[in-house]
Amino acid sequence: MTTSWPPVAMRWPEQATQWMEQLSAAHTLASSEQASTAKRLADLNGKTSTNPGPVGGAAQGAITAGRAALANQMGEAPACLVVTPFQSGIGQGRGYQRFLSAPNLLQQLAGKLVDVSDTGRPDGPQFALCLMFLATRFDQLAESLARFNALLPMPDLVRAERRARHLSKLETEKWEIPNAGALPRWQLLPLERCTVVKAAQQSMAGQLSVLESYAADSSPMADLSAMATRKAAQQKSRDQVLADLKASLAGGSPDSSMRARLIGPGNATELRRALLEGDAPGMSGFCVPARCWWDLNKV
Asked: What is the C-alpha to C-alpha distance for residues 180 and 56, in angstroms, rounded to an integer?
């Protein structure tokens, strides 16, 4: 167990998602079946037929393995604790200029580990992953939290990001003198407030709805064709979302504004002692705004 706080590099968990490779064969077969189904529907003229296709049997094994992997990896929700200087009674400073140094942050976390009054405190042998966000300005802190919240948004961290961004904006805009234009000013007139226009709009909207109900009366074959098209588009959209996520995590470089440390296994007292060992970032003499995220998993 190390006592250092190395920078964090966020990457795609290749080893934990190897089971997704089992879906590739069934996914390729499903894509070809969708194309074949669309062609059959287009060529069908006054005939009906059913063909379940080979996708179900080919995908069954991969579905079972995938569901089991998802249950093992995400079936248990870890306990977490977020400490920010924006919370009541936490941090140093006054008013908007509140901050939290790294040593004081570790003291706060160490105290919560042995806080018996907190009913949500994890019990038994644990591993603890501590993430610390460092910055000397509110805009730096907001950007650092935004990169992390894009992958794992936590309510307290999202609120801290939003407040840091607002405070940064306040620091910039408080020196600006607004330039007010001469009165009166042009504005839009909402016609829906006019009684005559409102009644006419309701009448015409009702007539259009009746016509749209007739226009929506299509044949079953057209509905099947449209459904096949939507299914293919949805599959393509899901693949693109996953590809974009992998691309955003590809070749991630260490971020010096995020520091991490893994301690454990041990009970709450042992974790507290291990947490306070060594030097924390920010011990050199100046205080930095800091955030810490805890992920406590039972062994």
From this structure: 67
**Whether the predicted model's global pTM rises above the 0.85 cut:** no
CA dist 280 and 277 (Å) reads 9
pLDDT tens digits, residue range 148-204?
888 888 899 999 999 999 999 988 888 888 787 888 888 888 877 888 888 888 888
| 3-class DSSP assignment, residue 134 | strand
1 closest CA partner among 257, 210, 271: 271
Phi-psi region of 80 (alpha: psi -120 to 50; beta: other; left: phi over 0): beta
Q: Which ranges of the chain would DSSP assign to H, the alpha helix?
A: 23-43, 55-74, 102-113, 138-149, 155-173, 195-215, 220-249, 268-275
DSSP 182: P
The tokens 């909207």 sit on which residue? 205
Q: Please give the radius of gyration of the chain, using alpha carbons only, rounded to the nearest integer.
A: 29
Write out pLDDT tens, residues 215-266: 666 666 667 777 878 887 888 888 888 777 777 777 677 878 888 888 888 8
Average per-residue pLDDT for the chain: 76
Question: Bridge-partner residues for 291, per DSSP?
Answer: 133
User: Residues 106-118: pLDDT tens digits?
Assistant: 888 888 888 888 8
Tokens of 152: 């794992």
